[in-house]
Amino acid sequence: MNSYMGLKHLHMTCVALSASLFVLRFAWRMQGSALLQRKLVKIAPHVIDTCLLLSALGLAVMASINPFEQTWLAAKIIALLLYIFLGTMAIKRSKTQRGQLISFAFACGVFAYIIAVAMTKQVMPWM
């Protein structure tokens, strides 16, 4: 397997781990679980997301893709920033359960959009 494919598999694995941990942490938040306060639970998302971002940068460099030239990649980056904001609202910042649920739902929608854009290389993947 060439290095591009290896990096792509690492990237996709990090995507799955990041999403899974986000859903798990949200479930713990809804339950009021003390597990959210564990050191590993606080550190793991940062480690996984750093690997995710570095692998994405590596893939873009290896494929000579510039987000200023490829609108689909720019759309993914902007959507990622929105996903991060909504995720922090769902797990940390929103004080009401309703706000947490709404933020979580929108974060999941944005995550689905990012996946769709990655698969289609289209800003509007539903078209």
Set out the fold topology.
Blueprint: H1 3-31, H2 39-62, H3 71-93, H4 97-120
Could you characterize what this model shows?
It is a single chain. With 127 residues, this protein is an all-alpha fold. It folds into 2 domains: 1-64; 67-127. The chain is built from 4 helices and no strands. It has helices spanning 3-31, 39-62, 71-93, 97-120. It is globular and about 45 Å long. The N and C termini lie far apart (33 Å). The relative contact order is 0.11. The mean pLDDT is 96.
Task: Give a brief rundown of this model.
This protein is an all-alpha fold and 127 residues long. It has helices at 3-31, 39-62, 71-93, 97-120. The protein starts with a helix and ends in a 7-residue tail after the last helix.
Question: How would you describe this structure in keywords?
Answer:
mainly alpha, 127 residues
What integer value in Å does the Rg equal? 16 Å
Q: How many separate helices?
A: 4
pLDDT averaged residue by residue = 96
Helix content: over 70%
Task: Please write the string of helix (H) and strand (E) elements.
Answer: HHHH
**Biggest pleated-sheet summary:** none
Strand content: under 5%
Q: Per the principal axes of the C-alpha atoms, what is the gross shape?
A: globular
End-to-end separation: 33 Å
Count of the domains? 2
Note poorly predicted spans. none
The tally of strands reads: 0
Structural class by helix and strand composition: mainly alpha
